[in-house]
Amino acid sequence: MRLAQFILTHRITILDAWDTFASSLMPGNREMGPKELRDHAEEMLLEIAVDMGTSQSAQESADKSRGYGPKCGSDTASEVHAGARLRSGLSVVQLVAEYRALRASVLLLWSQSRGNDDEFLAEDTLRFNEAIDQGLAESVARYSQAVNESQDVFLGVLGHDLRTPLGAILLSAEFFLNASEQGSRQARVAEGISTSVRRAERIVEDLLDFVRARVGNGIPVDRVDGDLNALCESIVHEASLAHPDRAVVFEPDGSIVGKFDNARLGQVFSNLIENAIKHGSPGSPVVVTQRREGELAVFSIHNQGDPIAAEDLARIFNPMVRHSQFAKAERGPRAGLGLGLFVAQEIVTAHGGTIDVASSEESGTMFSVSLPLQ
Description:
Elements: H1 3-9, H2 11-25, H3 34-38, H4 41-52, H5 58-65, H6 77-88, H7 92-114, H8 121-179, H9 185-215, E1 224-227, H10 228-242, E2 248-252, E3 257-260, H11 262-279, E4 286-293, E5 296-303, H12 310-313, H13 319-322, H14 325-331, H15 340-350, E6 354-360, E7 364-372
Parallel strand pairs: 2-4
Antiparallel strand pairs: 1-3, 4-5, 5-7, 6-7
Helix pairs in contact: 1-4, 2-7, 4-8, 6-8, 7-8, 8-9, 9-15, 10-11, 11-15
């Protein structure tokens, strides 16, 4: 009997084996009935059997093995199954285990019933594995998409909800700061609270921008006529006041005017300058330069200090990679979320510009921002 026909004829036996294995994966104290355990397994088996009975080219076979096979309808049974398993509390590892078990069960039962008939063994086994791999790829993709979307929604709600208590704390701190005598202990405590809350507000704004960039079409910008020289000079002045022990030097090369979102670019300059202060050598200045190259405005922020490792340069703008399990294992835990560089890149990209970084022991670290003037 061909494997496709075997699946259709013996699908109840296969589903019984599926129920037994699926029940072993359920989270602790979670009991599920046969219907919930089986979920969309029968539809998945039927899709596999139909797929195996459909002729295909060598290219279609290769595409399917990579999870790029044709889809029937908007959602396959594998994609719907992934969403149901996520809601049931299964991890992606357990989801993959279900497919491994299904593959093993079908092939074992088929081999026991096949006898010595090996005429279609290689062909049917190959087609079945391709169909299983296609379903597995669809399930993992849908599961990952759902997890990412739920995380983004959670982060967005968290960032939004944190604004209210932070605002209340800031108002209280400013009240005590204004009511206290200059230089008194109460004034110093209130100033410390105010500074910490403002830092927390910047983190929340970065968090919200991160979510906007991931769930929308990037960070929105509102272009108006602006003078980048004046904007950058004001950011440098603010950084100098916030870090009186560090030298921040601004070296403009003429005035640069164009259409920009001044508030957003202020975020970019502030983030890059703060990073340079934080990671640069205390005894060396942070140098901010500005020049015009044709129809581009080019800004560079340079600092001396420990260089960025070569393997980190390619992923420095990706906070997900920087905070992955493997990144931590390589370099130890990092302070902060690291969203600032991601947000800066998104803002520059929204302006049609680019942001690059170069770092070495001899030359130090330089971030360069190129922006079209119009």
